[in-house]
Write a structure and sequence with these properties.
The chain is of the alpha/beta class. It has a domain of 246 residues: Amidase signature (AS) enzymes. It contains 15 helices and 11 strands. An 11-stranded mixed beta sheet has the order 1-3-2-4-6-5-10-11-9-7-8, with helices on both faces. Strand 7, helix 8 and strand 8 form a beta-alpha-beta unit. The longest helix is centred in the C-terminal third of the chain and has 24 residues. The protein is globular. The two termini are 14 Å apart. The structure holds glutamine (GLN). The site of glutamine has 14 residues, from loops.
Length: 483
């Protein structure tokens, strides 16, 4: 792996770091220092982080080293630096969602995923930048300013988990967590050339994830390799009584099946997601991925998921509707910012006017409208019916095939300012990722080559609910094929 500024660094895949730390061959302290150095060298240019928790990270590393010296095994992520999207609650560490309205708020508890990472020996190095409240596709809607794509700093890293994707791509941390409501892990992973996974809805506890659209939100990993993504998912997945939508299933066994290959698996290329609006170079890479799976023994065919074409429209009613309700809690009383005014009602208005950015306000208004009496059936109700159709179309497709293949994004990373003037064109970035959020199915993006200008292109592997194991097998085959 290459370090900051082309300097070769000793930083490597998470599983290698953990193995060395567990055996006492490398200290967690040294590992953390190496990554903090890499961050110091390039963070000013990229702005991947809202906060860097250097001191805490060094303390945690020292503690891990003492445990190893005492004969303890800190776990499968021993000493591995991790970057957390800044909408995951961290006890005593600011959690802002890149919004002014949460300025100064320090959660009194850790998200379940944060607890599980720590219990596995991982070390948090910082909280990463995002589009405010995870609403966006470029990190340009962040109150702390945009993150730059490490591959080409004139371009966006994608969003909303752009800071996490950039942090992994820049070698600031070998792994990171993001959240994916409509594509916010997979799209930035594709733009930055890293692996990004949205697990099955309910696979990973959402306890401590600041809610955007609760029926769609799901936490997942970023990593430089498929194996590292599998390792992180094994650590964070599994039932959690603190999240009522968490599935009562143990974490999936992924590392064990990673080398099983795809011989005999049936894979369908989604016809609707290769059409109009998807760049030729992205279509070419997706077809190349289909050929790679075919060459590895999969039975590849084209399949139709007709309702997928309506995913975007349904999503932009359902997600804002849920957001308008979830974001009602930011009233200037309980969290962060308060702008004082003569009465409570005026204080609420002044705080929300000052605290929320334009995109968040747009979503709240769209959602409130979609839910309002007289329009509810026409908008929200209809969107829910489309959601059901999408689920049925996926179910029909999965009677014929085991996995689906599609582009992750219609284009490669775009330039700053290209889409900020036209919200609809920004929303279109998620046309290929949104259907899996609506169905609740798992999907992941795997880097599969480059387009014009050396910009990374990701292909998306989709699976039926709880089908992560087969999904990861296909991802591993693609990763091997592109080496
Ligand atoms: N870009 C999409 C949106 O703006 C998805 C966001 C997400 O997945 N958090 O809503």
């Amino acid at each position: 792996m290459t370090g900051a500024g082309g300097r070769p660094g000793p930083r490597g895949p998470a599983h290698e770091i953990a193995a060395a730390v567990r055996r006492g061959e490398r200290t967690a302290a040294l590992v953390v220092d190496e990554y903090l150095e890499a961050i110091a060298a390039r963070e000013e240019e990229l702005h991947a982080f809202n906060v860097i928790t250097a001191e805490r990270a060094r303390e945690a590393a020292a503690l891990l080293d003492r445990r190893v010296a005492a004969g303890d095994d800190p776990g499968p992520l021993a000493g591995v630096p991790v970057a957390l999207k800044d909408n995951l609650c961290t006890r005593g560490v600011p959690t802002t969602c890149s919004s002014r309205i949460l300025a100064g708020w320090k959660p009194p508890y850790d998200a379940t995923v944060v607890e599980r990472l720590a219990a596995a020996g991982a070390v948090v190095v910082g909280k990463t930048n995002l589009d405010e409240f995870a609403m966006g596709s470029s990190t340009e809607h962040s109150a702390t300013g945009p993150t730059r794509n490490p591959v080409d700093t004139e371009r966006v890293p994608g969003g909303s988990s752009g800071g996490s994707a950039a942090a992994v791509a820049a070698g600031f941390a070998p792994i990171a967590l993001g959240s994916d409501t409509g594509g916010s892990i997979r799209q930035p992973a594709a733009f930055c050339g890293v692996v990004g996974v949205k697990p099955t809805y309910g696979r990973v506890s959402r306890y401590g994830l600041v809610a955007f659209a609760s029926s769609l939100d799901q936490i997942g990993p970023f990593a430089t390799t498929v194996a590292d993504a599998a390792l992180v998912l094994e650590v964070i997945a599994g039932h959690d009584p603190l999240d009522s939508t968490s599935v009562a299933e143990p974490a999936p066994d992924l590392l064990r099946v990673l080398d099983d290959g795809v011989a005999g698996l049936r894979v369908g290329v989604v016809r609707e997601l290769l059409g109009e609006g998807v760049d030729a170079e992205v279509v070419e890479r997706t077809r190349a991925a289909a050929e790679a799976l075919d060459a590895a023994g999969a039975v590849v065919d084209e399949v139709s998921v007709p309702a997928a074409a309506y995913g975007l429209s349904a999503y932009y009613l359902i997600a804002p509707a849920e957001a308008s309700s979830n974001l009602a809690r930011y009233d200037g009383v309980r969290y962060g910012l308060r702008v004082d005014a003569a009465s409570t009602a005026e204080m609420n208005v002044a705080t929300r006017t000052e605290g929320f950015g334009d995109e968040v306000k747009r979503r709240i208004m769209l959602g409130t409208y979609a839910l309002s009496a007289g329009y509810y059936d026409a908008y929200y109700g209809k969107a829910q019916r489309v959601r059901t159709l999408i689920i049925r179309d996926f179910d029909a497709a999965y009677e014929r095939v085991d996995l689906l293949l599609a582009p992750t994004t219609p284009t490669t990373a775009f330039r700053f300012g290209d889409k900020t003037g036209d919200p609809l064109s920004m929303y279109l970035s998620d046309v290929c990722t949104i259907p899996s959020n609506l169905s609740g199915h798992p999907a992941m993006s795997v880097p599969f080559g480059f387009g014009a200008g050396g910009l990374p292109i990701g292909v998306q592997v989709l699976a039926p609910a709880l089908g992560e194991a087969a999904m990861f097998r296909a991802a591993a085959v693609l990763e091997e094929a592109i080496k």
